[in-house]
Amino acid sequence: MKVTRGPAKIKLRAPWEIDLLRKANAIVAEVLLTLKEKIVPGITAWDLNRIAEEIALKRGARPAFKGYRGYPFSLCVSVNEEIVHGLPLKEKVLKEGDIVSFDFGTIYEGYYGDAALTVAVGEVSEEAQRLMEVTEKALYKAIEKARVGNRVGDISAAVQNYVEKKGFNVIRDFVGHGIGESLHEPPEVPNFGRRGKGPRLMAGMVIAIEPMVVTGSYEVEILPDGWTAITKDRGLAAHYEHSVVITPKGPEILSKI
């Protein structure tokens, strides 16, 4: 989600709504697991987009991204220095040594699912492998802070502190978000910030937490296609995301694979 500013009301979801969100996110998880299993050198991003769309439709859901703000595809496929919103084009052929991030969403009976992960294509560099591991670990450190009584800033600080301690940087132009009857709802969930700041977390809140981590500078450039966000210094990028509901007993990952 692109950073925006301004006050907005945060919705708390009823149990029946959370059940629909579970179903929407279960389909997302199935898609991402399938894509991960399909990754081999030579496969095209276009092929992966088709597979993702077919699974969603077969499960009675609609791809959430297709047509959203004009986005022309169902899946985002971001390779190496591409951070997010990479277009799944026929000419984007995955090769040995690439890292590729998949971001996918669904709409199921009016409720949204959204998640992302980064995978290796064959053998990758030690730096790339470490980047993926740190980004995924940062996601789970953030989820651990998604508890009643904490604040959004506790989630943000958990990501930033861990990532920077490991020698990487977090992207600041794009943030996590609330999710429910819309793909992007309040509150914004940045991957940087201070503990104790931001909206208070309450039971029934559903948020998409999505660290985007880079090996170099966090500065972003948008390609001429108007969608693909890349690192300005062409450093590698990784992206992991889960949709999470905050419950009285702690966070529940709705999109767990």
From TrEMBL:
Domain of life: Bacteria
GO terms, molecular function: initiator methionyl aminopeptidase activity; metal ion binding; metalloaminopeptidase activity
GO terms under cellular component: cytosol
Keywords carried by this UniProt record: Aminopeptidase, Hydrolase, Metal-binding, Protease
Segments forming domain Peptidase M24: 20-247
Enzyme class name: hydrolase
Keyword Zinc: no
Signal peptide, first to last residue: none
Enzyme Commission numbers on file: 3.4.11.18
Gene Ontology terms: biological process: proteolysis
Cofactor: Co(2+); Zn(2+); Mn(2+); Fe(2+)
Catalyzed reactions: Release of N-terminal amino acids, preferentially methionine, from peptides and arylamides
A Pfam family matched in the record: Peptidase_M24
HAMAP family noted in UniProt: MetAP_1
Stated family: Belongs to the peptidase M24A family. Methionine aminopeptidase type 1 subfamily.
Function: Removes the N-terminal methionine from nascent proteins. The N-terminal methionine is often cleaved when the second residue in the primary sequence is small and uncharged (Met-Ala-, Cys, Gly, Pro, Ser, Thr, or Val). Requires deformylation of the N(alpha)-formylated initiator methionine before it can be hydrolyzed.
Protein name per Swiss-Prot or TrEMBL: Methionine aminopeptidase
